[in-house]
Amino acid sequence: MSKLLIATILGVCLFADHEIEIGEEFTLKKDKAAVLSGTDLKITMRSAGRSQKAEGGDTIYCRFDLVSEGSQRQITLDVGKSLNSAHHVVKLTKADLTTNPKATDPWESNSCNFVVSDIEE
User: In angstroms, how far is the first alpha carbon of the chain from the final one?
Assistant: First the structure.
């Protein structure tokens, strides 16, 4: 194989959006995206974090971009919560707040797990 072909294949694999199916739980790392098969619904994970509740305890959340029906929104969602978007429900099931203090970006290994389902009519 030529070097150009190999570079092209690697580029597509590294930068292509991950395609997901209805009901499939999937994981996104920081600045990675997933697209729901056959739709324009796209989720791009931006960050994960922890905030303190006024009544005590912590809330784990994820910030992400959501594209649906041609519009983009920036969303912050707590773990276990969901939101409706057009014909789908997006649920945040888990957030991994692992950090690497020696990395250029200590938060690059953060990830969030989502499940997309159809809105029941």
Answer: 51
Task: Enumerate the domain spans of the chain.
Answer: 18-118
Which pLDDT band holds residue 111 (cuts at 50, 70, 90)?
very high
What is the pLDDT at residue 100? 85
C-beta of residue 35 within 8 angstroms of C-beta of residue 66: no
- DSSP assignment of 46-103, as one string? EEEEEEE-TTSSEEEEEEEEEEETTEEEEEEEETT-EEEETTEEEEEEEEE----TTS
- Statement: 18-118 belongs to CATH 2.60.98: yes
How many other C-beta atoms can be found within 10 angstroms of the C-beta atom of residue 60? 17
Residues 91 and 115 sit within 8 Å (Cβ to Cβ): yes
